[in-house]
Amino acid sequence: MMKIKLYCAAFGAVMALFTSCSTSKPMVLNDLSGKWDIVAVDGKKVAVSNGVETPYLGFDVVNGNLTGSTGCNNIMGSFATTLPAGNIDFGKVASTRMACPDMTLEQDILRALGNVKSYKGAGAGKVELCAASGSGLIVLRKAEADLSVKELAGTWNIIEISDKPVSLPEGGQCEITFNIPDNTFSCSTGCNILGGSFQSGYTDFRFDLATATLMSCPDMSVEDAVKSVLPRITSFGKLGDGRIGFYSSDNALLMVISH
């Protein structure tokens, strides 16, 4: 009787395990969005000494851009956003070429990235990048983003458009207001009020200009410039001194805002 009870208990535990795995939600590309610390490469835990930047990867799943750092040099690459869930291919990954005291970790990271073909969950807050064979190459842990869209909440002055200072007559200001809970924005151009919605992930950012008042003004140049750049913006980031920059798909700085 004791053997039967033990067998039943063991069988029940195995079935529970299989049930848990079969009902777990598989990862999709959007789950990779954001910044991830690299915590292991080729099965070896990453140890970072004091004063050295933690290596990380950043996934812009809207534009298919890969960014990051090896702890020494910066990483740049791209990936297709149309592959089936669980599949990813970085193609050719490039990096800056600054010489560092120990390049071993950097070389291991870049070599591993060149072999990545898939991704899967690896426990709470972790992701594993895998080779075509399914073997694990890089383990990532979710990190806090350098810039959260929540930091955009409120009203900002638009101070530059396409590298040109924004100047309105009689000391007027061109302002943009972000309403974070419902992902909408409004923009006062010194003439009309523009409005619409926005989408944001890690570094990716998209404006959807939907409405505008139709008042005719003596000088429409600032308004025309704003209308021109908003649809071209694909990403954003910190510039320093509290300023935020918005960029095109080819990394041209299109708009700068400041409090």
What does this structure look like?
The longest helix has 22 residues, at 2-23. It contains three helices and 18 strands. It has helices at residues 2-23, 104-113, 221-229; strands at 34-41, 44-45, 56-60, 65-69, 74-78, 94-95, 118-121, 126-130, 136-142, 154-161, 164-165, 175-179, 184-188, 193-200, 205-212, 235-240, 243-247, 253-258. The strands form two sheets. Strands 1, 2, 3, 4, 5, 6, 7, 8 and 9 form a nine-stranded antiparallel sheet that branches. Strands 10, 11, 12, 13, 14, 15, 16, 17 and 18 form a nine-stranded antiparallel sheet that branches. Strand 4 (65-69) and strand 5 form a beta hairpin. Residues 1-24 have low confidence and may be disordered. The protein is an alpha+beta fold and 259 residues long.
Task: Provide a quick synopsis of the model.
By secondary structure, this protein is of the alpha+beta class.
Largest sheet: 9 strands, antiparallel
**What is the rounded distance between the termini?**
75 Å
Question: What's the total number of strands?
Answer: 18
Helix content: 10-25%
Low-confidence segments: 1-24
Radius of gyration: 24 Å
Q: What structural class should be given to the helix and strand makeup?
A: alpha+beta
Strand share of the residues?
35-45%
Number of helices: 3
Query: What's the average pLDDT?
Result: 87
Give the overall shape. Answer: elongated
Order of helices and strands: HEEEEEEHEEEEEEEEEHEEE
